[in-house]
Specification:
It holds the Pfam family SQS_PSY. This is NADH dehydrogenase complex I, assembly factor 6. InterPro entries: Isoprenoid_synthase_dom_sf, Squ/phyt_synthse. By secondary structure, this protein is mostly helical. The protein contains 15 helices and two strands. The chain has helices at 13-16, 31-48, 50-56, 61-83, 87-105, 113-129, 135-150, 160-181, 187-212, 239-245, 249-255, 262-288, 317-323, 330-343, 357-367, and strands spanning 218-220, 226-229. It has a two-stranded antiparallel ribbon with strand order 1-2.
Length: 370
């Protein structure tokens, strides 16, 4: 599960990379290039999205590089509002990533770590599953970039339903990409991923409150001189939840968690995330016992979620869920955050990291329960 945290001083990505990654690529990436790209991505996740860093270890080996590249790119996209001085520059960077994805899937990745690792993962996926197996991965990735671009200005969500839609197009989409990288094509797994992704997107929004509501940081040029500042403070809690709790945005900027109605609004939003996790657990129990999920999938029938019965081969539902269970561990990380949030009376400013999370994930994976 990704979170908006750990922002730097506004340096461009190129300035943070090893020197040999800053040149345009002229030859195919070597095994050394791929190894160094992998280490770069893992280092970014270790410091910027620790939950994703941990979840990666439980995934099937062939999907781990794709997961690392995709989650690192998501982290890069989530940080963009903090590392650019104007929305126009942000849109330029989004187009850079869109072009980069197209080049990477065309077999001509720029000499950039995320692209190199993703190119290697896509080539391995094609070798395992055949030509065309990467198409859905590219579809979801471009949708992620477009959604991040749409929400780059950190405007509040009008409603809780709008926040859920954002989560579907970001965090659920990241999970669809992980399933595609396994590869595992299953309506039931997509259904589980949709609920988990919505919970993760809501949790990421709650995690971001202490960072985004804080005063903006200056951006420095190469010489060290100031060239502007990042965005003004923002609060992404849905407006309908804030109105119901009597919470005013400016009060949070001035008083932080002491603003009237703040914890009530957070509780309402966190409850919706928890509802999705409860639904996930009920569905998972049904599917693991050979039953149906218990309710219809809201995206059923959409082209990207239509799979032929032959796509699953001879595997039954229980076998499919067992084979893809590690992908569902995102739910465990989200649930862990929600429990810690509840323990501090729904004050995101007081939530601390959980050093037991690796063990919590291991236990969930061992018992196939999220």
């Amino acid at each position: 599960m990704s979170s908006i945290r750990g922002f730097g001083t506004g340096l461009t990505q190129a300035a943070r990379l090893p020197r040999h990654f800053r040149r345009g690529i002229t030859t195919a990436p070597t095994p050394t290039d791929v190894s160094e790209a992998r280490q770069y991505c893992l280092n970014q996740l270790r410091h910027g999205d620790y939950e994703a860093y941990l979840v990666r270890h439980f995934l099937p080996g062939p999907a781990q590089d794709a997961y690392a590249a995709l989650r690192t790119l998501n982290l890069e996209l989530a940080r963009l509002p903090e590392t650019v001085s104007t929305p126009a520059i942000g849109r330029f960077r989004m187009q850079f990533w869109r072009d980069t994805v197209n080049r990477t899937f065309a077999g001509n990745p720029p000499r950039e770590p995320i692209s190199i690792l993703l190119h290697s993962a896509v080539a391995a996926l094609t070798a395992r599953a055949g030509p065309g197996s990467e198409n859905s991965l590219k579809f979801w990735l471009l949708r992620l970039i477009s959604t991040r671009e749409k929400h780059m200005e950190n405007k509040p969500f009008a409603t809780l339903a709008a926040l859920e839609d954002y989560a579907e197009h970001t965090y659920a989409t990241l999970m669809y990409m992980t399933l595609a990288a396994v590869p595992l094509r299953s309506m039931h797994m997509d259904h589980l991923a949709s609920h988990i992704g919505k919970a993760c997107g809501i949790v990421a929004t709650l995690r971001g409150i202490p960072v985004l509501a804080a005063p903006s940081q200056p951006i420095h040029g190469p010489s060290g001189s100031g060239v502007g500042s990042t965005r003004p403070p923002a609060l992404l809690l849905p407006l309908d939840a804030m109105a119901e709790a009597g919470l005013r945005e400016e009060d949070v900027f001035r008083r932080g968690p002491h603003a009237d109605g703040f914890q009530d609004a957070v509780f309402q939003v966190a409850t919706r995330a928890n509802d999705h996790l409860i639904t996930t657990r009920e569905m998972l129990k049904n599917l693991q016992s050979g039953k149906g999920p218990g309710h219809d999938y809201e995206h059923q029938g959409e082209p990207e979620h239509v799979y032929s019965t032959t796509a699953l081969g001879d595997e039954d539902t229980r076998a499919v869920v067992q084979r893809g269970f590690a992908v569902l561990l995102e739910a465990t990380a989200a649930g862990d955050y929600l429990r810690r949030l509840e323990s501090v009376n729904f004050d995101p400013f007081k939530v601390r990291s959980n050093w037991k999370l690796p063990w919590v994930l291991w236990k969930a994976a061992k018992h196939h329960q999220v």
